[in-house]
Amino acid sequence: MSSVMLKEIREIPDVVRRLVVDGADDNTRVAAAIRAASPRVVVIAARGTSDHAAVYARYLLESHLRLPVVLAAHSITTVYERSMDWRGSLVLGISQSGEGPDVATVVAAARRDGAITVAITNDPASALARVAEHTLACRAGVEKAVAATKTYVAELAVVAALVAALTRIDGPGVAEDDLSGALPGLPDVLARVLQASEAWVERADALVEALAASDRALVVSRGYDFATALEIALKLKETSRIFADGYSSADLLHGPLALAGPAIPMLVFRPDGRMGIALDGSLERARAIGARPWIVGGRDLSGLETGVRAVSLPVDVPEPLSPLCFALPGQLVAESVARRRGMDPDSPPGLTKVTKTL
């Protein structure tokens, strides 16, 4: 039986298509305002799934704009009530609903005290949008399932489109990580990845069964896709009540590798290129102590490791955009595991669509 969560995953290519086309003018306008402000540091306020979009934004902003990025400690503002000198900073508030009071409070304080502020939200009439100087809408439409899927990928797409507007490369050809050159074709890539991912998840019954039968799991990636590992681990937690932990493959070696072994399912998102090669060494260490990882990769895996425990997907985008692609098989796996465990992926117990914390 199909879930609302599955339906919303299937909407993702069209959501990103709307963003790329309809959001272009807003991205240009906000990018111009950011350039005029000339910030020297970026602070991102976010919670939950949006916090993982913030991790992605950190990698993208630091690599493309060469600005230091930090994630806000909300309670400094909301609980300890300490003020800060926000001058010279760009503050991004990321929230699907835009109704998290902690995120809105940080953004309001930052704007009041000298920062240029931008809200990234699915609701341009939300509290967050009202307190920010500028707003970029996710344009994902209503999301009914509690677990965020299309709104998460939409947040990533908004961040990528904003960075593309800030770093647009003029002239012929597409550089290795030229976002502006790759974004127009991204919706079609996502559609192909979605189709291939659905077919793979249907075949990967051993993976689904292993996760469904376990109370623990490791989800691993690195670089831009560190956000993917964190987000898919969260999806397994909230939809299937599995104690899943997301790790950078580098951090895995600093202690958590001791958790790996034949009894603990390990799901790995391996990007193509230099980061995939860097990740391989950690996988060899994990295999040496008995782990048998399932690997979701791009074209680099084709003809090498494909089979029951590895899938090569048509991730035909520069690596900085790969998290938008890898989110799809991860979300599909989480949805399938929840149903295998006899749970409703649309309404996890104890959770609500809008979570308000300070």
Q: What can be said about the biggest beta sheet?
A: 5 strands, parallel
Shape descriptor:
globular
Distance between the termini: 38 Å
CATH topology category name of the largest domain: Rossmann fold
CATH-level-2 architecture of the largest domain: 3-Layer(aba) Sandwich
Uncertain residue segments: 169-175
- Specify the CATH class of the largest domain: Alpha Beta
Assigned CATH superfamily of the largest domain: Glucose-6-phosphate isomerase like protein, domain 1
Q: What integer is the average pLDDT?
A: 92
Structural write-up:
With 358 residues, the chain is α/β, with parallel strands linked by helices. It has two domains: 4-168, 3-Layer(aba) Sandwich (Rossmann fold), CATH 3.40.50; 186-340, Glucose-6-phosphate isomerase like protein, domain 1 (Rossmann fold, 3-Layer(aba) Sandwich), CATH 3.40.50.10490. Helix content is 48%, strand content 14%. It has 15 helices and ten strands. The chain has helices at 4-10, 12-22, 24-37, 49-65, 74-78, 101-112, 127-131, 150-166, 179-182, 186-203, 205-213, 226-240, 249-252, 274-288, 322-340; strands at 41-46, 69-71, 89-95, 116-121, 134-137, 216-221, 243-248, 266-270, 294-297, 310-312. Helix 2 packs parallel to helix 8, helix 4 (49-65) packs antiparallel against helix 12 and helix 12 runs parallel beside helix 15. It is globular, with a radius of gyration of 20 Å. The model is unreliable at 169-175 (pLDDT under 50).
